[in-house]
Design brief:
Arc Repressor Mutant, subunit A, eight-stranded mixed β-sheet, 9 helices, 38% helix, LysR_HTH_N, DNA-binding transcription factor activity, WH_DNA-bd_sf, DNA-binding, transcription
């Protein structure tokens, strides 16, 4: 077995067909087919099943792909670390963020990182579930993650600051006259909420437990920007991290009372390389509490 075969199998799982995987990898289709057939012969199992919608991993295939992903990520990190002594750092950095966290801070830090290492490839994705982030960290797939809580040791986990949560109201809402909005004042309001298994919906439910135990759900969304825009249009109020408020909507935002916040923890993989270390230091320089900027004049 080879890392190339692992990469080909992962590409098929992502693209759904050998043809699409070959295009994704910029290689000839017969080469992909040959490598996968050889891999399945060596393993003595079928990794993919043909369906009307394309190739999908079998049960055994899914288990194999999980380990292949770890191996490929480790190989990329090893190459990047080996080249760290060169003038330019090359390789791939995989960053995951709990949804809504670092929306204002992360782009600036990543921009500075890319200017320092222009050949470094950075992959960033938002993850709604804090439990899934924790699982990905344990598997070694991520180089750095931003989350509210983790079970890692202090050497791997770094407290950057706090994300304060704010309420977003529609234009003309009576509570916009207040500097801070008491949570009890929102009882009976319809809410724009997030997916049921997301960390953000968990924060809202915890907040409302003592103030509005049976909240009315106006809508459920998957992105913080969507929640803010829908709340701005009067569909319902919503609660989001302060840094996640899109530009132009600040005048509709108020801090809440009692204050709601979560720590922002950066978790780096064990044996972090120069790219992860540099990004961590850049994130430390960012400002992590911004709700005061939303107070009315």
């Amino acid at each position: 077995m080879s890392l190339r075969q692992y990469e080909y199998a992962l590409a098929i799982a992502e693209a759904g067909s050998v043809t699409a995987a070959a295009e994704l990898l910029h290689v000839a289709q017969p080469s992909v087919s040959q490598q996968i057939r050889g891999l399945e012969r060596e393993l003595g199992v079928e990794l993919f099943a043909r369906t009307p919608t394309g190739l999908v991993p079998t049960v055994v295939g899914r288990a194999f792909l999980r380990e292949a992903e770890v191996a490929v990520s480790a190989s990329r990190r090893a190459r990047a670390t080996a080249r760290a002594g060169a003038v330019e750092l090359v390789g791939e950095l995989v960053v995951a963020v709990q949804m809504g966290f670092g929306t204002r801070q992360l782009p600036g830090a990543l921009g500075a990182l890319r200017r320092r290492f222009p050949r470094l490839e950075v992959t960033v994705f938002e993850e709604p579930s804090s439990a899934e982030l924790e699982r990905l960290c344990r598997r070694g797939v991520l180089d750095l993650a931003l989350m509210a809580a983790c079970e890692r040791s202090p050497a791997d986990a770094h407290h950057l600051g706090d994300e304060e949560f704010v309420v977003v109201l529609a234009a003309g809402h009576r509570q916009l006259a207040a500097d801070r909005v008491g949570l009890s004042e929102l009882e009976g309001e319809p809410w724009v909420r997030f997916d049921r298994d997301s960390a953000l919906d968990g924060v809202l439910l915890n907040v409302l437990r003592n103030n509005d135990p049976t909240p009315t759900t106006a809508a459920r969304v998957s992105q913080t920007a969507t929640a803010v825009r829908w709340a701005a249009q009067g569909l319902g109020v919503t609660l989001v991290p302060a840094s996640a408020v899109p530009h132009g909507h600040e005048y509709l935002v108020r801090p809440v009372f009692p204050a709601v916040s979560q720590p922002v923890i950066a978790v780096v993989r064990p044996g972090a390389g120069p790219a992860e270390t540099a990004l961590l230091e850049l994130l430390r320089k960012e400002t992590w509490t911004e709700s005061a900027s939303f107070s009315p004049a």
